[in-house]
Amino acid sequence: MKITLIGSGSWGTAIAGRAASNGNDVIMWSHSEECARGINEQGVNPRYLTQYELPKNVSATTDIVKALECADGIIFAVPSTHLREIANQAAPYICETTPILCLTKGIESTTGLLMNEVIGDECGHPERIAALSGPNHAEEVCQGQLSAAVIAAEDNDVASFFKGILLAPEFRIYLSGDVIGVEMCGAIKNIIAIVCGIASGAGFGDNTLALIMTRGLAEISRLVHARGGEALTCMGLAGMGDLVATCTSPHSRNRSFGHAFSQGTSLEQYQSQTHMVVEGAHAAKSATELAHILGVDAPLTFALNDALWHGQSMQEVLTNLVDRVPTEEFYGIIE
Ligand SMILES: NC(=O)C1=CN([C@@H]2O[C@H](COP(=O)(O)OP(=O)(O)OC[C@H]3O[C@@H](n4cnc5c(N)ncnc54)[C@H](O)[C@@H]3O)[C@@H](O)[C@H]2O)C=CC1
Ligand SMILES: O=C(CO)COP(=O)(O)O
């Protein structure tokens, strides 16, 4: 198969390698000449996962038309803030029956659309769009460390197609029909991971981190349920699995950013130092908008949104959170 991978960050690079290791010819589209040249000439992405040698059947280009020529399957792995613009550029060159897989985790601000929905909006035929999510740090997947992911699609054939492209003994893939649930979990767990990073940076202990993760999972479940997903998905790889991986791993950019933020580093400073996306920061804003529209209580999301985008001090945010009176443990999830 010929697989086109749109994006050349850490996750795109690791997934390009995974697909190519299964014998597929992978062409990566990069917005950066430097990345495309490094991949073609050295077989290594010079900016992300720089120690990882890509299989020989991976090439790269900055020409999106060339990248999409004769694609049997297309994978989007660009940050959420660039997804619409890039899907719009790609759309005229994508055949209407070509299956598409979305790796991006986020919610679009102002529209409240999930990432597969943004691609569907631009490229049409949403039934051929799947989403992959789960506890998958690119740094470990590219080393072949045992991992698992879920691929969700309305059409089981589309999910199965991408399972065939990516499956390996060390990369287990489960299927789901709950695209909304899988996408919502992937977006919101990044918010909770930033809050965990802030708490750990501020000196809170393991009890507090477990409290944030558990109440975070309840918050994710309420949002999933209200957006039309299945609360059970929150118990799976995209929910509980990714929440644990992102809230606890030193690989997580969201958690590390939270830690740095608690020490006074701004989002701009962190992103310009690392050249990496902190999806949870953008999701804090878009999920707040969405929660208000859906009428869902999402205190951790609101708190992070206040701290990141409305200049509220960490002390004020914390006081607001602990001033809340604890109520029924599972309100708003099961009717
Ligand atoms: N890194 C990981 O382990 C995982 C990442 N993801 C998700 O995958 C998505 C992509 O993240 P990463 O690959 O980690 O990115 P990254 O943080 O490693 O790299 C940043 C990406 O932004 C791209 N970029 C920067 N400016 C751009 C522009 N003007 N136009 C187009 N692209 C531009 C870079 O080429 C690069 O692809 C995110 O939504 C992330 O949440 C999901 C699972 C695992
Ligand atoms: O989604 C991820 C792991 O599954 C990556 O998380 P970070 O963006 O926090 O590194």
UniProtKB/TrEMBL annotation:
EC numbers for this chain? 1.1.1.94
Task: Give the protein family.
Answer: Belongs to the NAD-dependent glycerol-3-phosphate dehydrogenase family.
Indicate where this protein resides in the cell.
Answer: Cytoplasm
List the pathway annotation: Membrane lipid metabolism; glycerophospholipid metabolism
NCBIfam families for the chain: PRK00094.1-2, PRK00094.1-4
Q: Which GO terms describe its cellular component?
A: cytosol
- Enumerate the residues binding substrate: 105, 253-254
| UniProt xrefs under SUPFAM superfamilies | 6-phosphogluconate dehydrogenase C-terminal domain-like, NAD(P)-binding Rossmann-fold domains
Write down the species. Collinsella acetigenes
Q: Where is the Glycerol-3-phosphate dehydrogenase NAD-dependent C-terminal domain?
A: 178-318
Q: Where does sn-glycerol 3-phosphate bind?
A: 105, 134, 189, 242, 252-254
Q: Which residues cross the membrane?
A: none
Glycerol-3-phosphate dehydrogenase NAD-dependent N-terminal domain sequence ranges: 2-158
Presence of the UniProt keyword Ion transport in the record: no
Report the principal subcellular site: cytoplasm
Q: Name one GO biological process term.
A: glycerol-3-phosphate catabolic process
Enumerate the residues binding NADPH.
10-11, 31, 48, 105, 138, 253, 277, 279
Task: Name the lineage.
Answer: Bacteria, Bacillati, Actinomycetota, Coriobacteriia, Coriobacteriales
Annotated positions binding NAD(+): 7-12, 138, 253
Protein name, as recorded: Glycerol-3-phosphate dehydrogenase [NAD(P)+]
The answer to whether keyword Lipid biosynthesis applies is yes
